[in-house]
């Protein structure tokens, strides 16, 4: 759906061709400006600033190639569609080399195909403009409206970059695809896209996993009276509820092919059919979609339609897992401790100093959602004093295999080969490993024991033994 009247400049010396194209596009809602030679066309380009140009190639005073050269020099992204004479394919190809978007041959009989070409050219210009805006935004390094992202707790540079990207793409009409593991907060980011869009309608969310084709269609598109048994009255779907706003569809990787086709039509044509209705309805919702699946692999295996995948290619956001946002763990821990305490009408408990080190070493397969659940469970069980570690350790499996193993540095002991030169003793190798583990754990014995595959008591005994030996 166009948010303003698209201005079209037609430069054509053949009056019949010029009038036919102008009438069709004028009736279709475009603003039309016409010129019957290249020189006048260039003057109108500078004075009227059209959104797209149609130009003939062979005209009096100045030809189409001169028009293209003059336009591209001032506006390299201006979409230009060439109207070439029959058999003048060589000239049209030359025009493409000069910077034209596409060409059609006379006589121009399929005006609807020409309008489709026009829409694609305008969409391409919009995307290129957005990319340029994104580059400028990323170079500036700032966020215009921090309030858009207040629901997302972070100090991560990667997340900050995503905020910048969302501010750029927010006002555009194209769909947004959000990738992220389970629990990374995809709906929060979708809501941020809605806030950044400035749309006045609602934000409506739906998890489509497990919905069959009819349930998907009924939920999104609604149904007409009598569409199926029990449909005793017409019902609006979520698209109607989200009119003028944003519709968020989570887990689209689970959709069956028949449902993917309906989603493609909605994205491509901006229209849909309520169940039991033969009359399409127009939609002005912004679509944001999310998945934890690898859609590229699904396309390769035939499980996800390629045309739908490419339709989602315009704007993509990839959310990092919590294990790649370690600096956010203390912030999230403090936030959820406060939130849980307020919800349970308790005083916010004080976490033990070593808790963050344990959390940073855990891989968090459930990401932020899992951390939140851990904190709420711990606060629920908390009675007094310092917050107990027991709930967290139980959730993490209380074993070294659930802890991220940091990459070990090279030992300072030089390992010798087998030609009679000395190898380190077990005691010497153990001493180096313990030193490394304690350094990586920032002195935390429990965490270091996890790295080494020991329990804390065993490690403590070894440390005490080393201390006695040093004395």
Question: What does this molecule look like?
Answer:
The chain is an alpha/beta fold and 471 residues long. It has 4 domains: 7-132, 3-Layer(aba) Sandwich (Rossmann fold); 141-312, P-loop containing nucleotide triphosphate hydrolases (Rossmann fold), CATH 3.40.50; 323-402, Helicase, Ruva Protein, domain 3; 406-471, Arc Repressor Mutant, subunit A (Orthogonal Bundle). Helices cover 47% and strands 12% of the residues. The protein is built from 19 helices and 14 strands. It has helices at residues 15-27, 38-48, 64-74, 89-98, 111-140, 157-169, 186-197, 213-221, 238-241, 257-269, 295-300, 306-311, 328-343, 355-361, 367-381, 390-395, 426-440, 445-452, 456-470, and strands spanning 7-11, 31-35, 52-56, 80-84, 102-105, 176-179, 203-207, 222-223, 235-236, 246-250, 271-272, 281-282, 286-291, 315-318. A 5-stranded parallel beta sheet has the order 2-1-3-4-5, sandwiched between helices. Strands 7-10-13-6-14 form a 5-stranded parallel beta sheet. The longest helix has 30 residues, at 111-140. The radius of gyration is 31 Å and the shape is elongated. The N and C termini lie far apart (80 Å). Residues 404-415 have low confidence and may be disordered.
Concise summary:
With 471 residues, the chain is an alpha/beta fold. It contains 19 helices and 14 strands. The chain has 4 domains: 7-132, Response regulator (Rossmann fold, 3-Layer(aba) Sandwich); 141-312, 3-Layer(aba) Sandwich (Rossmann fold), CATH 3.40.50.300; 323-402, Orthogonal Bundle (Helicase, Ruva Protein, domain 3), CATH 1.10.8; 406-471, Arc Repressor Mutant, subunit A, CATH 1.10.10.
